[in-house]
Design a protein that fits this description.
13 helices, 328 residues, D-Maltodextrin-Binding Protein, domain 2, LysR family transcriptional regulator, 6-stranded mixed β-sheet, alpha/beta, globular
Amino acid sequence: MKRSRSPIDVRALEAFVAVCETGSMTAAAKRLQVSQSAVSQSIAALEREQGADLVDRDSRPPRPNLAGRALLELASPLLQRAHTVSGRIKDASLAGTPPVRLGCVDSFAATVGPEIIRAMSGSTRQIEMWSGLTPAHSRQVHDGEVDVVVCTQTVVNDNRIVELPLLSEAFLAVMSRRWLDGRAPKDSHWRQLAAELPLIRYTARSVIGQQIERLARHLGINGPRRYEFDATDPMLSLVSANLGFAISTPLCLWQARHYLNEIAVFPLPTGRLSRRDFFILHRQGEWVEFVENISSLTGRVLDQLICPALTRSLPQLPADALLPKPTN
């Protein structure tokens, strides 16, 4: 009888993600507050359980191979679900304390979301985080299926729903660093990029795909719809191979940050279509303190973690590429 693969061990998966995100076993061990050997053993055990190597150990820093990239793309929702289950078990005895159901667009859930969960892990408030497409979440908060929503496009016409700005990010042209090799500054511009390479798109059924398509038409980028993806990770795999360029945002790039050493960005012209805004939705008079905490934590995560890391990896990143909600 063929032996089936073992289920994913959550702690081993956390170690694998930490190595991919920090770029070293030492830094991953520091983040997880364990020994370096424990991190190495966890990843080795994960590879044995799944019957495949996940990390290219010949590269410096260590990077996920093809199988590892596939796992990394799935890791965030797996870990989020595992933390949700753990939290529900932990808080099951807290009578009269209902969980807050937080719906988030995928790029927020996978980037800022884990930091919010981590910051609130000491609280008695249970959080159930759901990710998905913006229109679905907007309807869900309207129908009472979720309590708070982080979305990029509001489609609810209901004066009982409060809408608050959360953050704003610029659309950027993204290309392989190989495309820049040997080019004079006058040839290094998004117009030249669009003239030479096809646009690799997000699928048109997503809000970000629709927003980028409107921007591309406005900029005169009208190439054929040759490649379309639901997620940033597979899209950047083609971009890094210099098979095309993309239009994306800082949070999406951070979501697929293991590609940052292989890509570069150009700013696009500023204008009404050139930014993606995030909002928090909640019902009037409900979860007000929780929403304030989400807003405050989001600002700290952007200022202290995501923006500095992106700027180090992508020095071409405009200063206003990722902005938290202004504080009064």
